[in-house]
């Protein structure tokens, strides 16, 4: 049988010969310390992939946090360390039983914070260049003129109007705010999206009709529509609301005000992929938002922020079963009819001071979201 070197190509033979000729001769030095050819076992185990090992029985499984074996239907088993944890004892808590493998916080390790340069932040959020600013300013001026001309002669009772957010004036601080959001989205493998997304295989845009709403929905007035358009134009220029995304070991990713937020200010639109509720009822996603409540269940739509989303994805929910939890609420979720389509917005319900964490009630309408274990 011919050897491998006989059948090898001339280029391969030249490469092998070159490697041998350029190899430096090893020198023996009695004073030099011996070279450690082997890695420590602890280092190997830290980098090695984990294997799922099944016990013979889990009847004696206890929660590693509270030491109790009660409520076995809420006990989660870590696929790496094989320890048990109650869903309510884990921080951040687990709202739904995960589908697939699950790792406890200790096995997940610390959250890696990724830093972004100014160019990467601009590319990440798809911010427009200065050439587009003139068109946005002209459209804003035209909207003000229309508002002055359309002012009625008869005075009516003053309604509470939505207010546009006021971005931070310091460009460097705005980059820090956007960088904190980009880091949180990247850590969860999410894409940034500031609008609703309609994908093949999910609900089409034609299914999003506000006329099918059966649970009650507000209609966005012309004045509020102008405010919304102003907020959208500012976001496209990179002038986002003054918020910082901060990771908390008990609550996960949270949102804190980086400046004063006045009452009735538009905080953000809840964005993500639009899908039918019937297809997502058994989903373990913890960021599903009601978009449309139809008279028939087949017409109901939800927003799923498990692939795409914005800062609304990280605003915390209150424990609406306690008085202390309800006191935390400083914004609300409102569904609006915008040009015949359903949209969801988060609006401040009072003045929010700098450094204050944002909270709203996840059970604003249906009261089906489990919040009794929220911090």
TrEMBL record:
Its EC number is 2.1.1.369. It catalyses: L-lysyl(27)-[histone H3] + S-adenosyl-L-methionine = N(6)-methyl-L-lysyl(27)-[histone H3] + S-adenosyl-L-homocysteine + H(+). Residues 241-363 form the SET domain. Residues 1-12 have a biased composition (Polar residues). GO terms for cellular component: chromatin; nucleus. Residues 144-153 have a biased composition (Basic residues). One of its GO terms (molecular function) is histone acetyltransferase activity. Residues 1-33, 131-153 are annotated as: Disordered. Residues 131-143 have a biased composition (Basic and acidic residues). GO terms for biological process: methylation; regulation of cell cycle; regulation of DNA replication; regulation of transcription by RNA polymerase II. Keywords: Chromatin regulator, Metal-binding, Methyltransferase, Nucleus, S-adenosyl-L-methionine, Transferase, Zinc, Zinc-finger. InterPro entries: ATXR5/ATXR6, SET_dom, SET_dom_sf, Zinc_finger_PHD-type_CS, Znf_FYVE_PHD, Znf_PHD, Znf_PHD-finger, Znf_RING/FYVE/PHD. It is an enzyme of class 2 (transferase). It is found in: Nucleus. Pfam families: PHD, SET. The keyword Glycoprotein does not apply. Residues 60-110 form the PHD-type domain. This is [histone H3]-lysine(27) N-methyltransferase. It comes from Glycine max (Soybean). The gene is LOC100785817.
């Amino acid at each position: 049988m011919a050897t491998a070197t006989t059948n090898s190509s001339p280029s391969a033979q030249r490469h092998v010969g070159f490697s041998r000729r350029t190899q430096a001769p090893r020198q023996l030095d009695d004073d030099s310390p011996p070279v450690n050819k082997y890695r420590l076992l602890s280092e190997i185990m830290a980098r090695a992939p984990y294997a799922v090992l099944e016990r013979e029985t889990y009847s004696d499984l206890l929660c590693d946090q509270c030491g109790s074996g009660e409520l076995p239907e809420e006990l989660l088993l870590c696929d790496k360390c094989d320890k048990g944890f109650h869903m309510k004892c884990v921080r951040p808590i687990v709202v739904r039983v995960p589908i697939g493998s699950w790792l406890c916080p200790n096995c997940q390790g610390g959250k890696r914070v990724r830093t972004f340069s100014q160019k990467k932040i601009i590319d990440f959020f798809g911010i427009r260049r200065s050439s587009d600013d003139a068109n946005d300013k002209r459209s804003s001026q035209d909207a003000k003129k229309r508002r002055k001309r359309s002012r009625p002669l008869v005075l009516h009772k003053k309604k509470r109007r939505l207010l546009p957010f006021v971005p931070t004036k310091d460009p460097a601080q705005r980059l820090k705010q956007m960088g904190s959001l980009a880091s949180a989205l990247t850590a969860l493998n999410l894409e940034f999206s500031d609008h609703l997304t309609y994908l093949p295989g999910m609900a089409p845009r034609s299914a999003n009709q506000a006329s099918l709403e059966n649970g009650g929905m507000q209609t966005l007035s012309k004045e509020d529509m102008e405010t919304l358009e102003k907020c959208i134009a500012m976001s496209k220029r990179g002038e986002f609301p003054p918020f910082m995304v901060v990771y908390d070991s008990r609550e996960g990713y949270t949102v804190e005000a980086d400046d004063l937020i006045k009452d009735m200010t538009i905080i953000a639109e809840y964005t993500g992929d639009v899908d039918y509720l019937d297809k997502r009822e058994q989903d373990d996603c913890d960021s599903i938002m009601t978009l449309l409540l139809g008279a028939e269940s087949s017409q109901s739509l939800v927003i799923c922020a498990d692939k795409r989303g914005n800062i609304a994805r990280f605003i915390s929910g209150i424990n609406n079963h306690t008085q202390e939890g309800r006191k935390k609420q400083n914004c609300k979720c409102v569904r609006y009819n915008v040009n015949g389509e359903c949209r969801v917005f988060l609006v401040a319900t009072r003045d929010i001071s700098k450094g204050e964490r944002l909270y709203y009630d996840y059970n604003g309408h249906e009261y089906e979201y489990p919040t009794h274990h929220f911090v």
